[in-house]
Design goal:
54% of the residues lie in helices and 14% in strands. It has 565 residues and is α+β, with helices and mostly antiparallel strands. A hairpin with a 6-residue loop joins β4 and β5. It catalyses: ATP + protein L-histidine = ADP + protein N-phospho-L-histidine.
Protein backbone atom coordinates (compact mmCIF):
# COMPACT_ATOMS: atom_id res chain seq x y z
CA UNK A 1 0.00 0.00 0.00
CA UNK A 2 1.27 3.48 -0.83
CA UNK A 3 1.41 5.98 2.02
CA UNK A 4 1.34 8.92 -0.36
CA UNK A 5 -2.29 8.22 -1.33
CA UNK A 6 -3.04 11.29 0.76
CA UNK A 7 -1.24 13.35 -1.85
CA UNK A 8 -2.53 14.20 -5.31
CA UNK A 9 -2.63 12.02 -8.40
CA UNK A 10 0.67 10.39 -9.44
CA UNK A 11 3.13 12.90 -10.79
CA UNK A 12 0.88 15.88 -10.01
CA UNK A 13 2.37 18.59 -7.76
CA UNK A 14 0.31 19.61 -4.75
CA UNK A 15 -0.98 23.13 -4.45
CA UNK A 16 -0.94 25.19 -1.29
CA UNK A 17 -4.70 24.91 -0.91
CA UNK A 18 -4.45 21.07 -0.91
CA UNK A 19 -1.48 20.77 1.48
CA UNK A 20 -1.66 17.61 3.60
CA UNK A 21 0.33 16.20 6.51
CA UNK A 22 2.56 14.32 4.05
CA UNK A 23 3.33 17.53 2.21
CA UNK A 24 4.51 19.11 5.45
CA UNK A 25 6.57 16.00 6.25
CA UNK A 26 8.21 16.16 2.82
CA UNK A 27 9.24 19.76 3.39
CA UNK A 28 10.43 18.82 6.88
CA UNK A 29 12.68 16.08 5.52
CA UNK A 30 13.94 18.38 2.76
CA UNK A 31 14.81 21.02 5.37
CA UNK A 32 16.51 18.38 7.56
CA UNK A 33 18.71 17.36 4.62
CA UNK A 34 19.74 20.99 4.13
CA UNK A 35 20.62 21.28 7.81
CA UNK A 36 22.62 18.02 7.73
CA UNK A 37 24.53 19.16 4.66
CA UNK A 38 25.40 22.52 6.22
CA UNK A 39 26.40 20.88 9.52
CA UNK A 40 28.67 18.40 7.71
CA UNK A 41 30.34 21.19 5.74
CA UNK A 42 30.79 23.29 8.88
CA UNK A 43 32.13 20.33 10.90
CA UNK A 44 34.62 19.22 8.26
CA UNK A 45 35.82 22.79 7.66
CA UNK A 46 36.33 23.19 11.39
CA UNK A 47 38.32 19.94 11.68
CA UNK A 48 40.40 20.90 8.67
CA UNK A 49 41.15 24.31 10.20
CA UNK A 50 42.12 22.90 13.64
CA UNK A 51 44.05 19.76 12.66
CA UNK A 52 45.41 20.71 9.28
CA UNK A 53 44.43 20.08 5.69
CA UNK A 54 45.78 16.52 5.76
CA UNK A 55 43.01 15.40 8.17
CA UNK A 56 40.16 16.02 5.73
CA UNK A 57 40.76 15.51 2.05
CA UNK A 58 39.65 18.18 -0.39
CA UNK A 59 37.43 15.87 -2.41
CA UNK A 60 35.56 14.71 0.74
CA UNK A 61 34.94 18.33 1.66
CA UNK A 62 33.86 19.02 -1.92
CA UNK A 63 31.46 16.06 -1.75
CA UNK A 64 29.85 17.50 1.41
CA UNK A 65 29.60 20.96 -0.17
CA UNK A 66 27.99 19.41 -3.27
CA UNK A 67 25.56 17.48 -1.06
CA UNK A 68 24.58 20.66 0.80
CA UNK A 69 24.00 22.53 -2.48
CA UNK A 70 21.96 19.62 -3.89
CA UNK A 71 19.83 19.53 -0.71
CA UNK A 72 19.19 23.28 -0.95
CA UNK A 73 18.26 22.97 -4.65
CA UNK A 74 15.91 20.06 -3.90
CA UNK A 75 14.26 22.05 -1.10
CA UNK A 76 13.70 25.09 -3.31
CA UNK A 77 12.93 23.52 -6.68
CA UNK A 78 11.27 20.17 -6.08
CA UNK A 79 7.67 19.70 -4.96
CA UNK A 80 6.13 16.65 -3.28
CA UNK A 81 4.53 14.16 -5.64
CA UNK A 82 2.99 10.74 -5.17
CA UNK A 83 5.73 8.20 -5.88
CA UNK A 84 3.26 5.33 -6.24
CA UNK A 85 4.69 1.85 -6.57
CA UNK A 86 7.46 2.86 -8.98
CA UNK A 87 10.92 4.16 -8.12
CA UNK A 88 10.31 7.80 -8.87
CA UNK A 89 13.33 9.83 -10.05
CA UNK A 90 12.74 12.22 -7.17
CA UNK A 91 13.69 9.48 -4.72
CA UNK A 92 17.00 9.05 -6.56
CA UNK A 93 17.73 12.76 -6.08
CA UNK A 94 17.00 12.54 -2.35
CA UNK A 95 17.24 9.08 -0.76
CA UNK A 96 19.76 7.77 -3.30
CA UNK A 97 22.12 10.73 -2.85
CA UNK A 98 21.81 10.46 0.96
CA UNK A 99 22.79 6.79 0.95
CA UNK A 100 25.72 7.36 -1.43
CA UNK A 101 27.11 10.35 0.49
CA UNK A 102 26.63 8.86 3.96
CA UNK A 103 28.15 5.52 2.81
CA UNK A 104 31.21 7.30 1.41
CA UNK A 105 31.70 9.26 4.64
CA UNK A 106 31.31 6.08 6.73
CA UNK A 107 33.71 4.04 4.59
CA UNK A 108 36.33 6.78 4.51
CA UNK A 109 35.93 7.48 8.23
CA UNK A 110 36.26 11.20 7.53
CA UNK A 111 37.55 12.88 10.68
CA UNK A 112 37.37 9.52 12.51
CA UNK A 113 33.61 10.07 13.07
CA UNK A 114 30.77 7.53 13.10
CA UNK A 115 28.24 8.50 10.40
CA UNK A 116 25.86 5.51 10.70
CA UNK A 117 23.09 7.47 12.54
CA UNK A 118 22.71 9.69 9.46
CA UNK A 119 21.19 6.71 7.59
CA UNK A 120 18.11 7.21 9.77
CA UNK A 121 17.13 10.23 7.64
CA UNK A 122 16.72 8.38 4.27
CA UNK A 123 15.22 5.37 6.05
CA UNK A 124 12.59 7.56 7.75
CA UNK A 125 11.94 9.49 4.56
CA UNK A 126 11.38 6.29 2.58
CA UNK A 127 9.21 4.78 5.36
CA UNK A 128 6.99 7.82 5.80
CA UNK A 129 6.64 9.05 2.23
CA UNK A 130 7.25 5.90 0.19
CA UNK A 131 5.84 2.43 -0.27
CA UNK A 132 6.52 -0.59 1.94
CA UNK A 133 8.99 -2.00 -0.57
CA UNK A 134 10.92 1.28 -0.75
CA UNK A 135 11.03 1.58 3.06
CA UNK A 136 12.36 -1.95 3.62
CA UNK A 137 14.70 -1.68 0.63
CA UNK A 138 16.22 1.54 2.00
CA UNK A 139 16.68 -0.08 5.44
CA UNK A 140 18.27 -3.15 3.82
CA UNK A 141 20.64 -0.96 1.77
CA UNK A 142 21.74 0.90 4.89
CA UNK A 143 22.27 -2.37 6.81
CA UNK A 144 24.31 -3.93 3.99
CA UNK A 145 26.48 -0.84 3.67
CA UNK A 146 27.16 -0.88 7.42
CA UNK A 147 28.05 -4.59 7.24
CA UNK A 148 30.37 -3.89 4.28
CA UNK A 149 32.01 -1.11 6.27
CA UNK A 150 32.47 -3.48 9.22
CA UNK A 151 34.05 -6.10 6.95
CA UNK A 152 36.47 -3.55 5.47
CA UNK A 153 37.51 -2.34 8.92
CA UNK A 154 37.90 -5.93 10.19
CA UNK A 155 40.50 -6.55 7.51
CA UNK A 156 42.62 -3.81 9.10
CA UNK A 157 42.03 -4.91 12.71
CA UNK A 158 40.95 -8.60 12.81
CA UNK A 159 40.69 -8.54 16.59
CA UNK A 160 37.61 -6.27 16.44
CA UNK A 161 35.77 -8.42 13.88
CA UNK A 162 32.96 -9.63 16.18
CA UNK A 163 32.44 -6.26 17.80
CA UNK A 164 32.18 -4.41 14.50
CA UNK A 165 29.81 -6.94 12.89
CA UNK A 166 27.62 -6.96 16.03
CA UNK A 167 27.45 -3.18 16.01
CA UNK A 168 26.62 -3.07 12.28
CA UNK A 169 24.00 -5.86 12.64
CA UNK A 170 22.25 -4.22 15.57
CA UNK A 171 22.21 -0.89 13.76
CA UNK A 172 20.77 -2.57 10.64
CA UNK A 173 18.09 -4.29 12.73
CA UNK A 174 17.28 -0.94 14.27
CA UNK A 175 16.86 0.53 10.81
CA UNK A 176 14.44 -2.27 9.85
CA UNK A 177 12.42 -1.75 13.03
CA UNK A 178 12.45 2.01 12.49
CA UNK A 179 11.33 1.62 8.87
CA UNK A 180 8.53 -0.79 9.80
CA UNK A 181 7.16 1.27 12.69
CA UNK A 182 7.44 4.57 10.84
CA UNK A 183 5.71 3.08 7.81
CA UNK A 184 2.85 1.69 9.93
CA UNK A 185 2.38 5.09 11.60
CA UNK A 186 2.41 6.73 8.18
CA UNK A 187 -0.22 4.30 6.92
CA UNK A 188 -2.41 5.10 9.92
CA UNK A 189 -1.91 8.82 9.35
CA UNK A 190 -2.88 8.35 5.70
CA UNK A 191 -6.11 6.53 6.63
CA UNK A 192 -7.02 9.11 9.26
CA UNK A 193 -6.30 11.98 6.90
CA UNK A 194 -8.37 10.33 4.20
CA UNK A 195 -11.24 9.82 6.66
CA UNK A 196 -10.92 13.43 7.82
CA UNK A 197 -10.99 14.68 4.23
CA UNK A 198 -14.11 12.59 3.52
CA UNK A 199 -15.69 13.92 6.72
CA UNK A 200 -14.88 17.50 5.77
CA UNK A 201 -16.32 16.94 2.31
CA UNK A 202 -19.51 15.45 3.74
CA UNK A 203 -19.79 18.28 6.27
CA UNK A 204 -19.23 20.87 3.56
CA UNK A 205 -21.85 19.23 1.35
CA UNK A 206 -24.28 19.07 4.27
CA UNK A 207 -23.64 22.73 5.04
CA UNK A 208 -24.33 23.65 1.41
CA UNK A 209 -27.57 21.64 1.44
CA UNK A 210 -28.62 23.25 4.72
CA UNK A 211 -27.85 26.71 3.35
CA UNK A 212 -29.80 25.95 0.17
CA UNK A 213 -32.77 24.74 2.19
CA UNK A 214 -32.65 27.82 4.40
CA UNK A 215 -32.35 30.20 1.44
CA UNK A 216 -35.29 28.66 -0.42
CA UNK A 217 -37.49 28.06 2.62
CA UNK A 218 -40.59 30.22 2.65
CA UNK A 219 -40.53 30.49 6.44
CA UNK A 220 -38.03 32.75 8.15
CA UNK A 221 -35.23 30.98 10.04
CA UNK A 222 -33.15 32.62 12.77
CA UNK A 223 -30.35 30.93 14.70
CA UNK A 224 -29.54 32.70 17.99
CA UNK A 225 -27.51 31.86 21.07
CA UNK A 226 -28.29 32.39 24.75
CA UNK A 227 -27.06 36.00 24.56
CA UNK A 228 -29.49 36.80 21.72
CA UNK A 229 -26.71 37.04 19.14
CA UNK A 230 -27.93 36.11 15.67
CA UNK A 231 -25.67 33.49 14.04
CA UNK A 232 -27.65 32.88 10.85
CA UNK A 233 -30.72 34.26 9.10
CA UNK A 234 -32.25 33.23 5.79
CA UNK A 235 -33.68 35.74 3.25
CA UNK A 236 -37.26 35.15 4.47
CA UNK A 237 -36.26 36.15 8.03
CA UNK A 238 -34.41 39.20 6.73
CA UNK A 239 -37.53 40.26 4.85
CA UNK A 240 -39.71 39.79 7.93
CA UNK A 241 -37.43 41.67 10.33
CA UNK A 242 -36.27 44.37 7.94
CA UNK A 243 -32.84 45.85 7.18
CA UNK A 244 -32.11 46.32 10.90
CA UNK A 245 -31.08 42.67 11.05
CA UNK A 246 -27.68 43.63 9.60
CA UNK A 247 -25.16 45.38 11.85
CA UNK A 248 -23.62 48.65 10.54
CA UNK A 249 -20.14 47.14 10.35
CA UNK A 250 -21.31 44.03 8.54
CA UNK A 251 -22.59 40.75 9.89
CA UNK A 252 -25.78 40.15 11.85
CA UNK A 253 -27.07 42.27 14.70
CA UNK A 254 -28.11 41.30 18.22
CA UNK A 255 -31.81 40.77 18.79
CA UNK A 256 -31.48 43.17 21.72
CA UNK A 257 -30.41 45.92 19.30
CA UNK A 258 -34.01 46.61 18.23
CA UNK A 259 -36.73 47.23 20.84
CA UNK A 260 -39.35 45.89 18.43
CA UNK A 261 -37.68 42.45 18.52
CA UNK A 262 -38.16 42.02 22.27
CA UNK A 263 -40.92 39.37 21.84
CA UNK A 264 -38.42 37.20 19.96
CA UNK A 265 -35.81 37.71 22.69
CA UNK A 266 -38.32 36.64 25.35
CA UNK A 267 -39.27 33.58 23.32
CA UNK A 268 -35.63 32.55 22.89
CA UNK A 269 -34.96 33.09 26.60
CA UNK A 270 -37.89 30.85 27.57
CA UNK A 271 -36.59 28.20 25.18
CA UNK A 272 -33.16 28.17 26.85
CA UNK A 273 -34.69 28.17 30.34
CA UNK A 274 -37.21 25.38 29.77
CA UNK A 275 -35.08 23.42 27.25
CA UNK A 276 -38.35 22.80 25.38
CA UNK A 277 -40.04 23.92 22.19
CA UNK A 278 -41.88 27.23 22.40
CA UNK A 279 -44.40 28.91 20.13
CA UNK A 280 -46.38 32.13 20.08
CA UNK A 281 -47.93 34.77 17.83
CA UNK A 282 -45.91 37.95 18.31
CA UNK A 283 -46.05 41.50 16.97
CA UNK A 284 -42.78 42.80 15.49
CA UNK A 285 -42.51 46.60 15.50
CA UNK A 286 -40.43 47.56 12.46
CA UNK A 287 -40.65 51.27 13.19
CA UNK A 288 -42.48 53.99 11.34
CA UNK A 289 -45.80 52.64 12.51
CA UNK A 290 -45.27 49.31 10.72
CA UNK A 291 -46.16 46.31 12.89
CA UNK A 292 -45.87 42.81 11.46
CA UNK A 293 -47.77 39.90 12.98
CA UNK A 294 -45.53 36.83 13.07
CA UNK A 295 -46.05 33.25 14.21
CA UNK A 296 -42.82 32.11 15.89
CA UNK A 297 -41.78 28.58 16.86
CA UNK A 298 -38.48 27.61 18.48
CA UNK A 299 -36.41 24.49 18.84
CA UNK A 300 -33.18 23.91 20.71
CA UNK A 301 -30.23 22.52 18.79
CA UNK A 302 -26.87 21.30 20.08
CA UNK A 303 -25.50 20.25 23.45
CA UNK A 304 -26.00 22.20 26.66
CA UNK A 305 -22.74 24.11 26.48
CA UNK A 306 -23.08 25.17 22.83
CA UNK A 307 -26.85 25.04 22.40
CA UNK A 308 -28.46 27.29 19.79
CA UNK A 309 -32.07 28.32 19.46
CA UNK A 310 -33.54 27.87 15.97
CA UNK A 311 -36.54 30.13 15.41
CA UNK A 312 -39.04 29.52 12.60
CA UNK A 313 -40.97 32.65 11.65
CA UNK A 314 -44.12 32.83 9.52
CA UNK A 315 -45.91 35.96 8.40
CA UNK A 316 -49.45 35.56 9.69
CA UNK A 317 -50.80 37.41 6.65
CA UNK A 318 -49.25 34.89 4.28
CA UNK A 319 -50.36 32.02 6.51
CA UNK A 320 -53.93 33.29 6.51
CA UNK A 321 -53.80 33.83 2.76
CA UNK A 322 -52.60 30.24 2.26
CA UNK A 323 -55.39 28.90 4.43
CA UNK A 324 -57.89 31.08 2.63
CA UNK A 325 -56.66 29.81 -0.74
CA UNK A 326 -57.04 26.21 0.43
CA UNK A 327 -60.54 26.91 1.69
CA UNK A 328 -61.41 28.63 -1.58
CA UNK A 329 -60.09 25.70 -3.57
CA UNK A 330 -62.24 23.31 -1.56
CA UNK A 331 -65.19 25.66 -1.93
CA UNK A 332 -64.60 25.85 -5.68
CA UNK A 333 -64.65 22.06 -6.05
CA UNK A 334 -67.84 21.86 -4.03
CA UNK A 335 -69.42 24.76 -5.96
CA UNK A 336 -68.64 23.09 -9.29
CA UNK A 337 -70.36 19.91 -8.19
CA UNK A 338 -73.34 21.88 -6.91
CA UNK A 339 -73.53 23.91 -10.13
CA UNK A 340 -73.77 20.73 -12.18
CA UNK A 341 -76.64 19.54 -10.01
CA UNK A 342 -78.44 22.92 -10.18
CA UNK A 343 -78.26 23.38 -13.96
CA UNK A 344 -80.74 20.67 -14.93
CA UNK A 345 -83.50 21.64 -12.42
CA UNK A 346 -82.93 25.29 -13.32
CA UNK A 347 -83.45 24.55 -17.00
CA UNK A 348 -86.68 22.76 -16.15
CA UNK A 349 -87.86 25.72 -14.04
CA UNK A 350 -87.06 28.17 -16.87
CA UNK A 351 -88.87 26.09 -19.46
CA UNK A 352 -91.91 25.59 -17.22
CA UNK A 353 -92.04 29.33 -16.50
CA UNK A 354 -91.97 30.12 -20.25
CA UNK A 355 -94.85 27.71 -20.88
CA UNK A 356 -96.80 29.11 -17.95
CA UNK A 357 -96.17 32.69 -19.10
CA UNK A 358 -97.99 32.02 -22.40
CA UNK A 359 -101.30 31.43 -20.55
CA UNK A 360 -101.04 34.34 -18.11
CA UNK A 361 -103.24 37.35 -18.69
CA UNK A 362 -103.35 39.27 -15.44
CA UNK A 363 -100.56 41.87 -15.02
CA UNK A 364 -99.77 40.73 -11.51
CA UNK A 365 -99.24 37.16 -12.62
CA UNK A 366 -97.07 38.21 -15.57
CA UNK A 367 -95.01 40.38 -13.21
CA UNK A 368 -94.42 37.40 -10.95
CA UNK A 369 -93.48 35.28 -13.96
CA UNK A 370 -90.98 37.94 -15.11
CA UNK A 371 -89.47 37.94 -11.62
CA UNK A 372 -89.03 34.17 -11.82
CA UNK A 373 -87.45 34.51 -15.28
CA UNK A 374 -84.99 37.21 -14.14
CA UNK A 375 -83.86 35.26 -11.10
CA UNK A 376 -83.54 32.07 -13.12
CA UNK A 377 -81.34 33.91 -15.62
CA UNK A 378 -79.24 35.28 -12.75
CA UNK A 379 -78.82 31.78 -11.33
CA UNK A 380 -77.90 30.57 -14.81
CA UNK A 381 -75.15 33.20 -15.13
CA UNK A 382 -73.76 32.23 -11.71
CA UNK A 383 -73.77 28.55 -12.69
CA UNK A 384 -71.95 29.32 -15.95
CA UNK A 385 -69.35 31.42 -14.14
CA UNK A 386 -68.71 28.62 -11.65
CA UNK A 387 -68.35 26.11 -14.47
CA UNK A 388 -66.07 28.52 -16.34
CA UNK A 389 -63.67 28.31 -13.41
CA UNK A 390 -63.40 24.56 -13.96
CA UNK A 391 -63.13 24.93 -17.76
CA UNK A 392 -60.47 27.68 -17.86
CA UNK A 393 -57.48 25.48 -16.86
CA UNK A 394 -58.23 23.18 -19.79
CA UNK A 395 -58.43 25.98 -22.35
CA UNK A 396 -55.59 27.42 -24.39
CA UNK A 397 -53.46 24.32 -23.76
CA UNK A 398 -53.56 23.10 -27.34
CA UNK A 399 -52.24 24.91 -30.37
CA UNK A 400 -50.51 28.26 -30.11
CA UNK A 401 -52.80 31.25 -29.67
CA UNK A 402 -53.40 33.39 -32.77
CA UNK A 403 -52.18 36.95 -33.19
CA UNK A 404 -55.13 39.35 -33.08
CA UNK A 405 -55.43 42.90 -34.27
CA UNK A 406 -55.90 44.41 -30.83
CA UNK A 407 -57.73 47.56 -31.94
CA UNK A 408 -60.18 45.71 -34.18
CA UNK A 409 -61.05 43.02 -31.64
CA UNK A 410 -61.48 45.51 -28.78
CA UNK A 411 -63.63 47.81 -30.94
CA UNK A 412 -65.90 44.94 -32.02
CA UNK A 413 -66.43 43.66 -28.47
CA UNK A 414 -66.82 47.10 -26.91
CA UNK A 415 -69.29 48.22 -29.58
CA UNK A 416 -71.51 45.17 -29.01
CA UNK A 417 -71.38 45.70 -25.26
CA UNK A 418 -72.27 49.41 -25.57
CA UNK A 419 -75.27 48.62 -27.78
CA UNK A 420 -76.45 45.93 -25.36
CA UNK A 421 -76.24 48.18 -22.28
CA UNK A 422 -77.30 51.39 -24.09
CA UNK A 423 -74.58 53.53 -22.50
CA UNK A 424 -73.08 55.31 -25.52
CA UNK A 425 -72.72 58.60 -23.66
CA UNK A 426 -70.85 57.09 -20.68
CA UNK A 427 -68.20 55.12 -22.60
CA UNK A 428 -65.24 56.58 -24.48
CA UNK A 429 -63.10 54.40 -26.76
CA UNK A 430 -59.51 55.41 -27.54
CA UNK A 431 -57.43 53.25 -29.89
CA UNK A 432 -53.69 54.00 -29.93
CA UNK A 433 -52.28 50.52 -30.56
CA UNK A 434 -51.78 51.46 -34.25
CA UNK A 435 -52.32 47.96 -35.59
CA UNK A 436 -50.33 46.17 -32.87
CA UNK A 437 -50.94 42.43 -32.71
CA UNK A 438 -51.59 40.57 -29.46
CA UNK A 439 -51.33 36.81 -28.86
CA UNK A 440 -54.77 35.88 -27.53
CA UNK A 441 -57.88 33.88 -28.42
CA UNK A 442 -60.68 36.09 -29.72
CA UNK A 443 -63.35 34.46 -27.53
CA UNK A 444 -61.14 34.73 -24.46
CA UNK A 445 -60.36 38.39 -25.17
CA UNK A 446 -64.09 39.07 -25.51
CA UNK A 447 -64.75 37.41 -22.14
CA UNK A 448 -61.98 39.38 -20.42
CA UNK A 449 -63.14 42.72 -21.84
CA UNK A 450 -66.81 42.09 -21.07
CA UNK A 451 -65.98 41.20 -17.46
CA UNK A 452 -63.91 44.37 -17.05
CA UNK A 453 -66.64 46.51 -18.64
CA UNK A 454 -69.31 44.94 -16.40
CA UNK A 455 -67.22 45.79 -13.33
CA UNK A 456 -66.61 49.33 -14.57
CA UNK A 457 -70.33 49.89 -15.24
CA UNK A 458 -71.21 48.65 -11.76
CA UNK A 459 -69.12 51.33 -10.02
CA UNK A 460 -68.94 54.18 -12.57
CA UNK A 461 -70.94 57.40 -12.34
CA UNK A 462 -73.54 58.66 -14.84
CA UNK A 463 -71.19 61.32 -16.23
CA UNK A 464 -70.06 61.29 -19.90
CA UNK A 465 -66.69 59.55 -20.25
CA UNK A 466 -67.11 57.82 -16.88
CA UNK A 467 -65.79 54.64 -18.55
CA UNK A 468 -62.80 54.65 -20.88
CA UNK A 469 -61.41 51.80 -22.96
CA UNK A 470 -57.89 52.55 -24.18
CA UNK A 471 -55.44 50.48 -26.23
CA UNK A 472 -51.74 51.26 -26.53
CA UNK A 473 -49.05 49.80 -28.74
CA UNK A 474 -45.31 49.42 -28.32
CA UNK A 475 -43.26 46.35 -27.42
CA UNK A 476 -46.00 45.24 -25.02
CA UNK A 477 -49.51 46.22 -26.24
CA UNK A 478 -51.92 47.02 -23.42
CA UNK A 479 -55.65 47.30 -22.92
CA UNK A 480 -56.95 49.55 -20.13
CA UNK A 481 -60.51 49.79 -18.82
CA UNK A 482 -60.85 52.85 -16.58
CA UNK A 483 -63.86 54.07 -14.58
CA UNK A 484 -64.36 57.04 -12.30
CA UNK A 485 -65.60 55.02 -9.34
CA UNK A 486 -64.49 55.51 -5.75
CA UNK A 487 -61.16 54.15 -4.55
CA UNK A 488 -61.16 50.51 -3.52
CA UNK A 489 -60.75 49.57 0.11
CA UNK A 490 -57.23 48.15 0.76
CA UNK A 491 -58.70 44.88 2.01
CA UNK A 492 -60.70 44.57 -1.22
CA UNK A 493 -57.73 45.48 -3.41
CA UNK A 494 -55.58 42.70 -1.91
CA UNK A 495 -58.08 40.02 -2.92
CA UNK A 496 -59.31 41.39 -6.25
CA UNK A 497 -58.29 38.40 -8.34
CA UNK A 498 -59.15 35.66 -5.83
CA UNK A 499 -62.05 33.32 -6.63
CA UNK A 500 -65.36 33.78 -4.82
CA UNK A 501 -64.32 37.17 -3.43
CA UNK A 502 -66.63 40.12 -4.05
CA UNK A 503 -67.55 43.33 -2.29
CA UNK A 504 -71.16 42.93 -3.46
CA UNK A 505 -73.55 40.28 -2.23
CA UNK A 506 -75.16 39.82 -5.68
CA UNK A 507 -71.84 38.94 -7.38
CA UNK A 508 -70.27 35.47 -7.56
CA UNK A 509 -66.74 36.90 -7.28
CA UNK A 510 -65.47 34.89 -10.25
CA UNK A 511 -65.21 37.48 -13.03
CA UNK A 512 -61.75 38.89 -12.27
CA UNK A 513 -60.45 35.44 -11.32
CA UNK A 514 -61.47 34.10 -14.74
CA UNK A 515 -59.83 37.12 -16.39
CA UNK A 516 -56.56 36.43 -14.62
CA UNK A 517 -56.63 32.72 -15.50
CA UNK A 518 -57.29 33.44 -19.18
CA UNK A 519 -54.51 36.04 -19.30
CA UNK A 520 -52.00 33.65 -17.75
CA UNK A 521 -52.90 30.94 -20.26
CA UNK A 522 -51.90 33.27 -23.11
CA UNK A 523 -48.78 34.71 -21.50
CA UNK A 524 -50.47 38.03 -20.70
CA UNK A 525 -50.73 39.77 -17.32
CA UNK A 526 -53.58 41.67 -15.69
CA UNK A 527 -53.38 44.22 -12.91
CA UNK A 528 -55.06 47.11 -11.14
CA UNK A 529 -53.99 50.65 -10.36
CA UNK A 530 -55.58 53.85 -9.11
CA UNK A 531 -54.93 56.89 -11.27
CA UNK A 532 -56.27 59.57 -13.61
CA UNK A 533 -58.11 58.85 -16.84
CA UNK A 534 -55.75 57.66 -19.61
CA UNK A 535 -57.15 59.94 -22.35
CA UNK A 536 -57.59 63.18 -20.42
CA UNK A 537 -56.89 64.82 -17.11
CA UNK A 538 -59.32 65.02 -14.22
CA UNK A 539 -59.96 63.05 -11.09
CA UNK A 540 -58.61 59.63 -10.23
CA UNK A 541 -60.35 56.41 -11.04
CA UNK A 542 -59.94 52.64 -11.05
CA UNK A 543 -58.02 51.18 -13.98
CA UNK A 544 -57.70 47.50 -14.89
CA UNK A 545 -55.01 46.88 -17.49
CA UNK A 546 -53.96 43.84 -19.53
CA UNK A 547 -50.44 43.60 -20.98
CA UNK A 548 -50.34 41.26 -23.99
CA UNK A 549 -47.62 39.12 -25.46
CA UNK A 550 -46.68 39.97 -29.06
CA UNK A 551 -46.00 37.44 -31.82
CA UNK A 552 -42.44 37.05 -33.17
CA UNK A 553 -43.35 39.01 -36.30
CA UNK A 554 -45.98 41.72 -36.41
CA UNK A 555 -48.14 41.96 -39.51
CA UNK A 556 -48.85 45.57 -40.58
CA UNK A 557 -52.45 46.70 -40.20
CA UNK A 558 -54.32 49.94 -40.76
CA UNK A 559 -54.43 52.07 -37.60
CA UNK A 560 -57.73 52.90 -35.94
CA UNK A 561 -58.74 56.45 -35.27
CA UNK A 562 -59.85 57.73 -31.89
CA UNK A 563 -63.56 57.21 -31.36
CA UNK A 564 -65.31 59.27 -28.72
CA UNK A 565 -68.85 58.94 -27.56
Amino acid sequence: MTVARALQAPGAPLTAGEESAFTRLWFGFATARVVIGLVLVGLLVGLRAMNGPWTISTWVLGMCVTYALAAIAARLLLRPVEPGRTFDPQWVSSIGIDIVVFSALQLLQAGNMYFAPLFAVPVLMAAVLGSTLLALGTAAAAALLLLADAWVLSLQTPSELAQRFLQAGLTGIGFFVLAFLAHQLALRLSREEEAARAGRKAAHMQAQVNQLVMDTLGDGVLVVDASAQVHAANPAAQELLGPGLFAPGGGLAWLLAEPGWKPLVDLARRTFETRATQGADVAIDLGGGVVRQVQARTRLSGIDGDALCVMFLQDLRQLEARLRTERLAAMGRMSTAVAHEIRNPLAAITQANELLEEDLREPGHRQLSALVRQNAQRLGRIVEEILDVARVPHQANGAASPALDLDAEVWSTADDWIRQHRCDDRVQLVFEARGAAAVFEADHLRRVLVNLLDNALRYASEQPGAIQVVTEGGECPTLTVWSDGDALDPTVERHLFEPFFSSQSRSSGLGLYICRELCERHGASIGYRRGPAPSSGGGNGNAFFVAFRTPPRLAPAAPFATIGA
